Amino acid sequence: MIKAMTKGVDHIGVTASFFCHDGKGNFVMALRGANARDEQGRWDIGGGGLEFGEKIEDRLRTEIKEEYCADVIEYEFLGFRDAHREHNGKPTHWISLDFKVRVDHAQVRNGEPHKFDDIRWCTLATLPQPLHSTIPLFFEKYRGKLI
Fold this sequence. Notes:
The chain is α+β, with helices and mostly antiparallel strands and 147 residues long. It is built from two helices and seven strands; from the N terminus they run ββββαβββα.
């Protein structure tokens, strides 16, 4: 029997990560619940793994609709992060393609309550804690481009 390969563990995973904002200094973060892949109980920006043959823009729009029930108004590619960390005692490696995405504040709600315990509008001055392990680097790298 052939074991299924796991993104980020058995091979490098590629993800579209998104910083959803309303254009007024507010942005969305989600509290990862018990059914999230990892780092449960931590606040994170959105994201989703890219599938073979899929266009990155399609993944971005699909994930934002699924996670936040919102349509993309506009987006900007910020750059990438090379994320090395550990999960369940195994090293992981993800390439995160990072986007700043404007959404309609009124549309946003928790579209995946089975995965997220809460979502919250935040500002850079009101970051919830604890943060997902990859988020401090995200804010350090892009702080000048976010708001």
